Amino acid sequence: MSGTGRQSSLISTLKSGFSNSLTRIAFNATANAYNASQYLNGQCVVFVQHARPELAIGWGTATNGPNVAVQKGFHVDDIPLIGSAFVFAARTHGTGSAGHTGIVTDVNVQRVAQNGQISYQYRIESREANWQSSRSVIPQGTERITNESRTFPFPKEAGLSFIWGKDADYN
Questions:
Q1: CA distances to 99, 135, 139, 163 from 93, in Å
Q2: Is 95 exposed, middle or buried (0-12, 13-18, 19+ CB in 10 A)?
Q3: Which DSSP symbol is given to 139?
Q4: Contact 126, 86 (CB under 8 A)
């Protein structure tokens, strides 16, 4: 499929409300088992592993997640799916050297007209642990799980990737 055809198909898929089982990844929407000693210093990766246990694959910091996921047979893409793990690379989107991750809980694609140009953007809703922009350490006892909302240009945002399921599920 051509790049333009692929984008049109993906936009249609994103707008469809994710009713197809391949575009919605199962995750524990109520994951908030929270042990402060386990989640010290912004352990967002551990939270993601609670929400999607199949991602307990030894990725270390969030920024390593996409590379480790590919090595373990997961599909990593620049398109968000509900249930995918989003990953901000190190020192992007206000993160420190470890990056940041969370679980996508909703996606909304929007058509934007500006100065006669049409573009698309998407808003992702997420559930994540210990997000605090421009920080590297969360003080012990202040760890938290939050719901966040962010808007990005479609189809690609530098420093942002999404870990889907196993590659075999998308072939």
A1: 9, 11, 21, 18
A2: buried
A3: P
A4: yes
For 1, the token pair is 């499929």
What pLDDT shows up at residue 96? 83
- Read off the pTM: 0.76
Q: Is the N-terminal amide bond of 155 cis, ω within 30° of 0?
A: yes
- Could you tell me the two tokens for 32? 């908030």
Task: Please state the φ and ψ torsions of residue 81, each to the nearest 5 degrees.
Answer: -120, 145
Q: Are 100 and 62 in contact (CB under 8 A)?
A: yes
Residue with tokens 């990593």: 76
- Decide if 155 contacts 55 (C-beta within 8 A): no
Residues 114-138 have pLDDT tens digits of 888 887 888 888 878 766 544 445 5
**Which DSSP state fits 143?**
-
